[in-house]
Design goal:
Layout lengths: L2 H18 L5 H10 L2 H19 L13 H6 L4 E7 L6 E10 L9 E10 L6 E5 L12 H6 L2 E5 L19 H15 L7 E6 L1 H12 L6 E5 L9 H11 L3 H16 L1 H14 L10 H10 L1 H8 L16 H12 L6 H4 L3 H11 L17 H4 L18 H11 L4 E6 L19 E5 L13 H14 L5 H5 L13 H10 L6
Parallel strand pairs: 4-5, 4-6, 6-7, 7-8, 8-9
Antiparallel strand pairs: 1-2, 2-3, 3-5
Helix pairs in contact: 6-7
Length: 513
């Protein structure tokens, strides 16, 4: 049975439920949100509706006028407020805006908040790529790899509950993956009035996960998804998978050198932690979330080997301090480079509260063997490293063990037109998404020796050409045979330029995931 047939059957079964009020339809959610905007969204919507009324006197809204300027069209979308237009050096137009979203898509009448997004405009006749990092949105002109490959427009959304896209007061139970997917659905649906060519979705790391979740709940919103370095923590064999990764990644010499340097950070704790405390005091750091500087220091040390493989290459092993001969300065500088001296302070963690909350309630998080640290740890490793430890105590969490297995089953049974790209030496790739018998026109690629910044351009040449052609096909720019034929002439792809440099910088920012 094809995915399309399954969807038709599912739709047939859902109709009675919608009739009985058992589910909230997207249209009903949209109407509820627009009817309950209140003070937060009133100003933006009034401006949009005013533009819409002006256009309607001539028979159509500016949003639907293909000859109108993009700024006028964007402003005419109900719920959109343009806050800034920034110049580019590439001929694109770039806007920062907000969109009025329900706090709860299942009960849209309960209130709204303003969700930030950006638009990189290439042209109405170009495909559009919908991007999320899963975190805050960048506010300088940039584009992702898929956007460059299809020479497209790019809409980038800030994930809900990352400031400033956080409802006030914050009801953290509304920070889950289904609400986030509904945010994406409403924004994409609204902007399809302007961009009517094919849409793709993409993201890396947490953004790659979020792109997958979006497709699970709204599988037909986009023509294809390119998800980079996206872990799949189903809570089934996670410990074994991550432990095996650290037992086998790189060379035995590199692994031994890393383990010894990590242990030495704890052996010399009396001297190095004193410096850590002093530096955090100077920075104004507090440690209410993790409890004490001692616990925060230990949590940071637990992260150094993970951080090394996430952001470095095997060739960087030569730069790891030799435990037996390294000075305190050398060890401390390496610790700072891998984990960040202030990285576990309240001030640093606050930026990622939404991530840690999601990980503690739905996404899950890795555990792995640290037996080489026996005798030098002050705390129970699984308690210190648990993501719940990084969520402020006043925010309650309950883990939903069904959330990730549901996504995993959907990818294997019904996922279609999804591409996963992993790095061979990236620890997050130890628990990747796997395709199943029901996965259609979907692919998994791995960059040999790649880290958490792996992408299509880093794949072996034949695989890179194949993946590029497939992305272009999904975007409506090529034929199916072209993606299967490596001899096919590639379409013209814009040169790597300033937009891509900024896009790469955003993807390489150090984040928890």
């Amino acid at each position: 049975m094809t995915t399309t047939v399954r969807r038709l059957l599912a739709s047939t079964l859902l109709i009675p439920l919608l009739t009985l009020g058992g589910l909230v339809s997207p249209a009903a959610a949209d109407q509820g949100a627009q009817g309950s905007q209140g003070a937060q969204g009133a100003q933006g919507d009034q401006g949009a509706q005013g533009d819409q009324g002006s256009g309607s006197r001539h028979g159509r809204s500016p949003a639907d006028d293909p000859n109108a300027d993009i700024k006028d069209r964007l402003a005419a979308i109900p719920g959109v407020t343009i806050t800034e237009e920034k110049p580019t050096t590439t001929g694109h137009r770039y806007f920062i805006a907000t969109y009025t979203q329900p706090v709860d898509h299942n009960r849209p009448w309960l209130g709204t908040f303003q969700q930030r997004f950006t638009l990189l405009h290439r042209g109405y006749d170009h495909p559009t790529v919908f991007y999320t990092s899963g975190y805050n949105v960048g506010t300088n002109p940039s584009r992702t790899e898929p956007t460059r490959l299809v020479d497209g427009n790019q809409v980038s959304i800030e994930y809900r509950f990352f400031t400033p896209s956080r409802p006030a007061p914050a009801d953290w139970s509304k920070a889950g993956i289904r609400q986030g997917a509904a945010d994406s659905h409403r924004l994409v649906t609204a902007l399809k009035r302007i961009y009517q060519q094919e849409w793709l979705s993409t993201g890396a790391s947490k953004g790659g996960m979020s792109s997958t979740y979006y497709r699970r709940f709204y599988p037909d919103d986009v023509a294809g998804t390119i998800a980079y370095v996206a872990p799949n923590n189903t809570d089934v064999n996670d410990y074994a998978a991550y432990s095996e990764f650290f037992r086998t990644v790189g060379t035995p010499e590199c692994r031994a050198r890393l383990n010894a340097a990590q242990r030495e950070l704890l052996v010399r704790r009396d001297r190095l932690e004193a410096r850590y405390v002093a530096d955090n005091q100077a920075a104004g750091s507090t440690f209410n979330t993790l409890g004490t500087p001692d616990r925060a220091y230990e949590a940071g040390v637990l992260d150094v080997i993970w951080g090394f493989w996430q952001y470095s290459l095997a060739s960087d092993c030569a730069k790891v301090p030799v435990a037996a001969t390294a000075t305190d300065d050398e060890l401390y500088a390496w610790f700072d480079a891998q984990a960040g001296i202030t990285g576990n302070s309240d001030q640093s963690l606050a930026k990622y509260t939404a991530y840690y909350y999601q990980a503690a309630t739905e996404l899950g998080a890795p555990f792995f063997d640290v037996s080489h640290l026996n005798g030098v740890l002050h705390y129970d490793y699984k308690e210190t490293y648990a993501v719940r430890s990084f969520v402020p105590k006043e925010i309650p969490t309950t883990f939903n063990r069904n959330a990730m297995p549901d996504i995993d089953r959907w990818v294997k049974r019904e996922g279609e037109r999804i591409m996963y790209v992993y790095g061979g030496n990236d620890p997050w790739g130890a628990k990747p998404f796997h395709l199943g018998r029901g996965s259609e026109d979907s692919y998994v690629y791995t960059v040999p020796g790649g880290n958490h910044g792996s992408n299509i351009g880093q794949l072996p040449a034949a695989q890179s050409a194949e993946a590029t052609a497939k992305v272009q096909e999904w975007a409506g720019l090529g034929q199916p045979d072209a993606a299967r034929s490596l001899a096919a002439s590639p379409r013209s792809i814009p040169e790597f330029g300033p937009l891509d440099v900024e896009g790469r910088r955003l993807e390489q920012e150090r984040r928890p995931l």
